[in-house]
Amino acid sequence: MSLHGQYDDQNIFAQIIRGEAPCYTLYEDEHVLAFLDVFPQSYGHTLVIPKRSAARNILEIDADSLSKMMVVVQKLTAVLVAELAPVGVQVAQFNGAPAGQTVFHIHMHIVPRFEGEALAVHAGGKAEPQALAALQARLLQRMAG
Ligand code: AMP
Fold first, then answer.
1. Does the CB atom of residue 42 touch ligand 1 within 6 A?
2. Contact 89, 77 (CB under 8 A)
3. Domains of the chain with bracketed CATH
4. pTM tops 0.90, yes or no
5. For residue 100, which of 57, 63, 68 has the smallest C-alpha distance?
6. Is 107 in the active site?
7. pLDDT digits (tens), the chain, 145 positions
């Protein structure tokens, strides 16, 4: 499963969209879902996915779903910057395993970068559930305020 292939509706993000697997939701509307990465590369690492597009990558997603996803990426980047005060933010998206893709439902990464802190390994160590829940609460409070 890489750059070319069939969409697998059992992938973990499809399960999350259907409510069959849990996530630390930050934002959800009819078209877009955003949640914390559970193997974060930095504090606040967030993923944004389209809910209605069975697209594995940027080659497959329709323009409308892509646009709606990117609007949420921009909004959440602002929330992460306001709440966590990083010195930089990476917004990234990988297509195909050789490019670093591990989950084959298109998603955008928002990765806050902090002074002097290297990135953790991509899809590496799992964060503590309590830490993720606390971060989720903090970011939800920021969005509510
Ligand atoms: P990519 O390698 O670009 O396909 O990114 C997939 C991302 O999904 C990685 O950063 C993983 O840490 C993350 N990930 C995998 N499973 C889950 C999950 N159940 N909940 C949240 N994030 C996940």
1. no
2. yes
3. 12-144 (3.30.428.10)
4. yes
5. 57
6. yes
7. 589 999 999 999 999 999 999 999 999 999 999 999 999 999 999 999 999 999 999 999 999 999 999 999 999 999 999 999 999 999 999 999 999 999 999 999 999 999 999 998 888 899 999 999 999 999 999 999 8
